[in-house]
Amino acid sequence: MTDTQGILGTGISEGLLLKPVKYQWAYELYNQAVANTWFPHEIQLGEDLGDFNRMTDEERHALTHLMSYFNPNELLVNKSLAFGVYPYLNAAECHLYLAKQMWEEANHCMAFEYVLETFPIDRAAAYESHVNVASMAAKEAFEVKYIKRMAEESLDISTTEGKRDFVRNLVAYNVILEGIWFYSGFMVALSFRQRNLLRNFGSLIDWIVRDESLHLKFGINLILTVLDENEDLQTPEFADEIREMILGAVEMETTYNRDLLPRGILGMNADYVNQYVRYMADRRLEELGFEPAYGVANPAKWMAAANDTLQLVNFFESTNTSYEVDARAH
Question: How many domains does the chain contain in total?
Answer without folding.
Answer: 1
